[in-house]
């Protein structure tokens, strides 16, 4: 495990979507310190901070924040919401909470996550989760570039923790799964890997292709529900820049992901679909665009009729 000191105040001011959150985080920081529980940032917010500050990539500020607690998160939030105005909107089976915070007349959503261990009992099934420590929480993640964490409270306050060389892979621009059964456990990670590759202009590591081969042999993609696949494809449309959509679809096609998932997507239809989506942008709401996109991608006859 490697550790690096960072300027915590600079990190917070760099990542925060609105300045008002700074005081809220200080309250959360003090509370976790008082309770003797480790509070930290993980995943995309740390990755993007390093891409921006160390590797000078143009990265937008995050629209939301994920905070992870090694401790009793439910009790922590109950105590926290006595100190700040807010409410728990949702509690998931995966030990996560979506919290709405009210700050100076503004509302902000924050995802709080319990540091946890995941166990996959079968191919492509959702995992069972158990409270654990930050090391297990790191080891459950999808790609090495998402394993870096930054401590907000003791014992690692202001410390960047790199458990498995994520910083090096970030610097080299590599999309590398943590282990070769990663896509067997959760094939949706493949779609996320494609999004990171295209978004950042990164490369797939050799381990990505080896993990993909194991996934194909186990036919794991075919065991994903249609709902989970559709959710991942929606993110191509909604979470990535529109000019990247063709590259996302073509990368998915060339990796044989559509075929392995039992989806009859035709590469020659991608341009027409993207052009139609652009033409109809002002006529369709978000849900209608998603439906049009999925139908056009999965059903050639639908697309042909729409082109008439």
Description:
The chain has an eight-stranded mixed beta sheet with strand order 1-10-9-2-3-6-5-4. The protein is an alpha+beta fold. It has helices spanning 8-15, 21-35, 44-53, 73-80, 134-139, 166-172, 182-185, 188-200, 206-217, 226-238, 245-254, 257-260, 270-279, 286-298, 300-307, and strands at 2-5, 38-42, 65-70, 86-91, 96-103, 106-114, 116-119, 128-131, 149-151, 159-162, 174-175, 203-204. The chain has two domains: 2-172, Beta Polymerase, domain 2 (2-Layer Sandwich), CATH 3.30.460; 173-308, cca-adding enzyme, domain 2. Strand 5 and strand 6 (106-114) form a beta hairpin. The model has no long low-confidence stretch (mean pLDDT 92). The protein is globular. Helix content is 46%, strand content 19%.
């Amino acid at each position: 495990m490697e550790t690096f000191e960072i300027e915590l105040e600079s990190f917070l001011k760099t990542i925060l979507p609105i300045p008002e959150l700074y005081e809220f985080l200080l309250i959360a920081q003090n509370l976790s310190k008082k309770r003797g529980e480790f509070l930290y940032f993980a995943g995309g917010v740390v990755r993007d901070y390093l891409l921006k500050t160390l590797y000078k990539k143009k990265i937008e500020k995050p629209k939301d924040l994920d905070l992870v607690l090694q401790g009793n998160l439910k009790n922590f939030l109950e105590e926290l919401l006595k100190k700040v105005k807010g409410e728990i909107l949702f509690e998931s089976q995966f030990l996560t909470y979506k919290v709405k915070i009210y700050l100076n007349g503004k509302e902000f959503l924050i995802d709080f996550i319990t540091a946890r261990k995941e166990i996959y009992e079968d191919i492509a099934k959702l995992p069972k989760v158990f409270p654990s420590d930050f090391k297990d929480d790191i080891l459950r993640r999808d790609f090495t570039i998402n394993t870096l964490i930054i401590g907000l409270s003791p014992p690692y306050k202001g410390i960047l923790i790199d458990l498995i060389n994520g910083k090096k892979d970030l610097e080299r621009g590599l999309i590398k799964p943590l282990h070769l059964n990663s896509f067997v456990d959760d094939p949706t990670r493949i779609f996320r890997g494609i999004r990171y590759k295209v978004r950042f202009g990164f490369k797939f590591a050799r381990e990505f292709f080896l993990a993909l081969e194991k996934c194909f042999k186990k036919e794991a993609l075919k065991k994903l529900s249609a709902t989970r696949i559709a959710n991942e494809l929606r993110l191509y449309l909604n979470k990535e820049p529109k000019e990247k959509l063709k590259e996302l679809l073509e990368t998915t096609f060339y990796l044989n992901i559509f075929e392995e998932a039992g989806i009859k997507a035709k590469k020659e239809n991608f341009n027409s679909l993207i052009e139609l989506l652009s033409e109809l942008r002002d006529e369709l709401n978000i849900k209608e665009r998603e439906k049009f996109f999925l139908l056009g991608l999965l059903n050639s006859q639908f697309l042909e009729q729409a082109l008439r």
